[in-house]
Structure formats: structure tokens, C-alpha cells
Amino acid sequence: MLNVLEYLQKCSAGGLLPWAAQLEAVERLGLSHAAVEEFALANGLLPARYQRNRNMISVAEQLQLFRSRIAVIGCGGLGGYIIEELARLGVGQIVAVDPDKFEEHNLNRQLLSTPANLGRAKVAAALDRVNEVNPAVKLIPVRTFFRAANGRELLQGVTVAVDALDSIACRLELAETCAGMDIPMVHGAIGGWYGHVATQLPGDTTVQSIYRNWVQGEGIEKDLGNPAFTPAVVASLQVAEVCKIVLGRGELLRRRKLSIDLLDMEMHEISYHAPAEVIHFPTREIEHERAAG
User: Fold this and answer.
1) Which pLDDT score, from 0 to 100, does residue 2 have?
2) Higher confidence at residue 141 or residue 276?
């Protein structure tokens, strides 16, 4: 493989490998986009697309991101933005799980939803989008419901699972599956102007605590709806948590929930070290914690 390294070094400048050189390497050397990217990163060369990352993410850390496998459960309002941002960040493998197809009411907020995609499977649109945005990233589309019965199979080999579901019952099943497999989980929920984010590591029960008062039924998204901006805000916070987990950096939203009120532009942190702590927050926050989708 020395000839590959020599070729990439010859094409690079200042430690950056231009996209044109990556394309040429794919064509001339018969390698995949993923193989070229991994080989470059493993040898200290940063694909130029990530040059704005390098003041905060080293080349070695970029390689960690590339070698990670992130499952995004749900490809709608939250999931579309999460997938887009993970691909642009340079996560090497994304497992996208969703059973649905696009409908007209998705057009106001779902990044992957377009008039041309109406009636199309969400995971198929996700695959096309990732191939367009970052061909070095492999997206595995899985058109199915997430359930406890298939959860272990869907999460096999996953570094982090991201909750972009709109069903409280399913996200509780996701939390239990992640716990049983020792997989970190980043939870997000939205409804109207409001949302929240929490990170659950193996051994924690934060998500179960958030929904401890839930009884059968839908989350408040069905009542409050969702505008274009709430999914983007919450999804971005979730991706930041994923990045920190993979790189082992920063302070996670562990055993705490960041509650977001975009109407009054306020954020509140709720601790889940002990259930009693939750009662100190306003009634509105307690209502949002039953939120959900």
C-alpha cells in the first residue's frame, strides 16, 4: 500500500487531502471512497472537507469518528437532521432505522422530505442524501420498526444509538435494549416550541425516569405539532453528545436532561440523580418531560 500513501502525500498540501485527489485515487487506484478516507486519516492526512474541524478535532479523533458506527432510530424530524450532521461530521457508518414513507405533512420540518420524495421510504431518501453529501460514509438503511424483539440485531456493533423516535413505548424499548447491550444512548424529544435532550450510559435509567409517569398514549407532539426549527435545534444537540461520546471528551448530559423552551428562549437542566429532584421544577417542565415525540 506504499504506493497509495505516496500518491496521497503527493496530492496533499499542508496535511490536507483535496476532494479532487480523493476522487482521482478512487478512479486510478480502484479503491472505495471509504478506503481512501480511512487510509488518509490513518496516515495523518486530513480530507480537506474536514479542515474546519481540525482546530477542535484532531486527525486521530477524526479517524475515531470515521471508525464509529452510529444507529439513528427514526428518520423523520429529528432523524433527518441527525443523519445529515453525522455524515458531514465524518462518522463512517450510520445505521438508519425507520419503517415509514414520506407524507405531505412531513414537508414543513423533515430535512429529507421533498415533494419528489413523497411516498418514498425515509431510509431510501437517507441513503441517497448521505451518498450525495459524503460518499465516504456508509449508510445502512433498515426499513422496519424498532422493537425489543429485533433491537439486538439492529444495534449489533453499534458505538452509540440515537433516539429519534416519536413513540414513548418504542424509546423505552430502545433504552432497555441499549442497557442490555452496554450501548450509550442519546435521547431527544420535541413538541411545538419545546424539546429536551439527555444522554444515557450503560447502568443509567435517565430515560425511564423521564417517562416514569407515562401511561399508554401518544406524546405531546401530536397536540403541539412541530415547526421547522425545533427538530434542527434538538438534533444538533444530540449530535454534539454523540461526538463527545465517541471521542471521550467534554461533559455529557448524563443523569440530567436539558429542557429547551424556544418560545421564551430558556433552557433548564433537570437532574435525575434522585427522583425527588424533579419536583422542584415548574409544572410546565413536568408536562414537557411527559413529552415526547
Assistant:
1) 58
2) 141
CA distance 31 to 14: 23
Q: Give the C-alpha separation, 193 to 210, whole Å.
A: 19
Q: What does the domain layout of the chain look like in residue ranges?
A: 12-59, 68-289
Q: What is the pLDDT of residues 123-152, one digit of tens each?
A: 999 999 999 999 999 999 999 999 999 999
**Backbone phi, psi, residue 200, to 5°:** -115, 115
Q: Tell me phi and psi for residue 133, to 5 degrees.
A: -75, -45
Cell, residue 113: 422530505
What count of Cα atoms within 13 Å lies in the side-chain half-sphere of residue 85?
22
End-to-end CA distance of the chain: 49
SS (H, E, C) 142-154: ECCCCCHHHHHHH
Strand locations in 92-184 (E): 93-97, 138-142, 160-163
Q: Report which of 102, 149, 152 is spatially closest to residue 124, judged by C-alpha positions.
A: 102
Select 68-289's CATH number: 1.10.1040.10, 3.40.50.720, 3.40.630.30, 3.40.50.2300.
Answer: 3.40.50.720
* Cβ within 8 Å of residue 223, ≥6 positions away: 191
Pick from 68, 47, 71: nearest CA to 244 = 68
Contacts of 82 (CB under 8 A, 6+ apart): 72, 162, 164, 235, 238, 239
Residues 6+ apart with CB under 8 A from 83: 72, 75, 94, 96, 112, 126, 129, 130, 139
